[in-house]
Amino acid sequence: MRFIDPHIHMTSRTTDDYAAMQKAGIVAIIEPAFWLGQPRTELGSFKDYYSSLIGWERFRASQFGIKHYCTIGLNSKEANNEALAEEVMELLPMFICKEGVVGVGEIGYDDQTAAEDKYYRLQLDLAREANLPVQIHTPHRDKKAGTIRSMEVALEHNLDPHMVIVDHNNEETVRDVLDRGFWAAFTIYPNTKMGNERMVEIVKQYGSERIIVNSAADWGISDPLAVPKTASLMLEKGISIDDIHKVCYQNALDSFGQSGQMKESDWLENTTIDQSQKLFNNSILRGGQLPTIGEIRTNPVFDSNIIR
Amino acid sequence: MNSKYLPTINAFLETLFSQHATTEAVSWLKEKQELVRTSETGKALYLPFSAAPRYVGKAPVTLTSTALQTANEHRRGFYPANWTLDQLARTILLLSLPSENADNYSKTVLKLFGTADMGELVALYAALPLLPHPEKFVHQATEGIRTNMGNVYEAIALHNPFPSENFSEAAWNQMVLKTIFTGKSISKIYGLDARSNPDLARMLSDYAHERWAAGRTVTPELWRPVGPHLNETILPDIKKLFASFNETEQEAAALACSQSTYPEAQTLLDEHPLLKYKIEEGQLNWSHISNKAIMA
Q1: Which InterPro entries does its entry note (chain B) (predicted)?
Q2: Residue B121: which H helix or E strand, with range?
Q3: Whose CB among A13, A28, A265, B277 lies 3.0–4.6 Å from A67's, allowing a Cys bridge?
Q4: B115 and A281 in contact by Cβ < 8 A?
Q5: Closest Cβ opposite residue B182 in set A98, A100, A281
Q6: CATH pick for A3-295 out of 1.10.760.10, 3.40.50.720, 3.20.20.140, 2.40.50.140
């Protein structure tokens, strides 16, 4: 089975993760622009970060047979440094039309401050003008109200709900998101966000339409195999293959594919990798490592497929 | 490159583009070119430059050997053999930018480098030999050879006359060594023989020693830039190659000696009359070695 993880921060992950993800059947990933665990203080840090998402990280992923896409945006936490945020807003138009940029994201609210609101709205306008999907980060605190507010503001700025992916949902927010016609993404992230046993129950209750599973794996304790593990658990719990395919692959493709920058043929027609050709003895392959050459085979084996 | 050649290169690229692209793509590019031509700040360049693949696609542009020859006549060393449509469009846009003021021109182009993705970097570096004011881009190109992205590296180092015309000896030597180090064929480096130098020969010999000490081999191509600079320090390496069981290494040793005016190298070559004969008869040359390396 093939999987897409439409929310994962690979710049914080190792090559072991890439190898394991490929082996578990992940064919494509989307890396939203995010914060780095501490605030940036200079514009150049943003520029280099965006450049790394469309450059080196994409190349690194390709060496493991994984197609890497990204969303570009100013995250809510760092929107609170207004002087810097102004400069970042001027930088964004240079990046959002780059190849493989499938949306504006992740943007939205954190503390729901006035500054966050201002730059969220400006970026919604930018996405609408560029006809790009929006990936919304919903707040950890005051979540339900923040989620509803995110959607109402998006509608106020004339965004089509079908172009908006609302992320980090839970049992309390899912109904509101689906009822309004938005895509509802769920992050399987140990301890803080969703566990995947709860995810199974959500799919049992709400079905598979417009529901998306992701890992949001980053620099914290998180699991880059959350999507394939959840798929495996769903299968075990009697959810149909068709529904699993939708929430762990097709819906991510249908929603972000609206950017015109992400097509199934990107990975179906190009399943051979050759690490030796591009990087022999350099960067990824270190002394003594054997390069992977040829057709990719997947064979997921998990110690446990449960994430709590 | 003197900017007086720009119109002919531009015409060549535009014809090539119109032969391969859809009519929609051709008119899209024409419209954007007009905007870029009249742009004072270069801002009109940034969006179409990054958006090019969305409008013109990324299909490979296949050139006949005659077309490649024409390219080389317009600009010596220019070899667009593995280009794509978006790359062609981006290059045409770059060449449409007003370039009378060198500072403004380079500032705009360097800003593109600073925010470029992989495809854009490939287009930018491969376009360097066509751009006016080459001296403004030397630093960027030497920065570029530090990349770990294989396709970006190849756009600068291989089939590109810019490095041989503009790089300092130190930068040139690093590029040649890195090309070998990353497993690419140095036969694709433009100006390889013209810019060989004693320091490069020493670096390559040192590199071979390092590999041999680790029980590894080196590509026989490595000895090509070494040949003209054989001396008493390097000659034992060549003797080692002659003693090898690997036929290609013996051939490389003979070719290196044949390039040298060092008397002892000539003596060494005389000891291998068959190889010497093959070289004199044109049956053995460095392309023969490169082809074998690619087949292996």
Answers
A1: EboA_dom
A2: helix B118-127
A3: A28
A4: no
A5: A281
A6: 3.20.20.140
Which residues fall within 8 angstroms of residue A189, CB to CB, at 6 or more apart? A215, A216, A217, A220, A222, A223, A226, A307
* The predicted structure's pLDDT at residue B47: 86
Same domain flag for B151 and B210? no
pLDDT, tens only, B177-227: 999 999 999 999 999 999 999 999 999 999 999 999 999 999 999 999 999
B239 and B278 inside one domain:
yes
pLDDT digits (tens, 9 = 90+) for B250-282: 999 999 999 999 999 999 999 999 999 999 999
End-to-end Cα spacing for chain B: 38
Q: Distance between CA atoms of B195 and B190, rounded to whole angstroms? A: 9
The answer to whether residues B30 and B157 belong to one domain is yes
Residue span of the structural domain in which B97 resides: 3-167
CA neighbours within 13 Å on the CB side: how many for B292? 15
Residue B182 lies in a domain: no
Question: A282 vs chain B: nearest CA distance in angstroms?
Answer: 6
Q: A182: which residues sit within 8 A by CB, 6+ positions away?
A: A151, A154, A161, A162, A164, A165, A166, A210
Residues of B in contact with A99 (CB under 8 A): 50, 53-54, 117, 119
Shortest Cα–Cα distance, A102 to chain B (Å): 12
Residue B98 located in a structural domain: yes
Q: Nearest by CB to A281, from B51, B114, B181: name it.
A: B181
Q: Which of A62, A282, A286 is the best mutation test for B, with the most CBs of B within 10 A?
A: A282
B176 in a structural domain? no
pTM, rounded to two decimals: 0.86
* Residues B75, B216 share a domain: no
CA-CA distance, A46 to B18, in Å (whole number)?
38
Angle, to 10 degrees, between the axis of helix B263-270 and the axis of helix B273-280? 100
Phi, psi of A69 (to 5 degrees): -120, 170
Same domain for B258 and B134: no
Element (H, E) at A210: none
The residue ranges of every structural domain in chain A are: 3-295
Q: What is the DSSP letter of A26?
A: E
Q: Does B51 lie in the same domain as B146?
A: yes
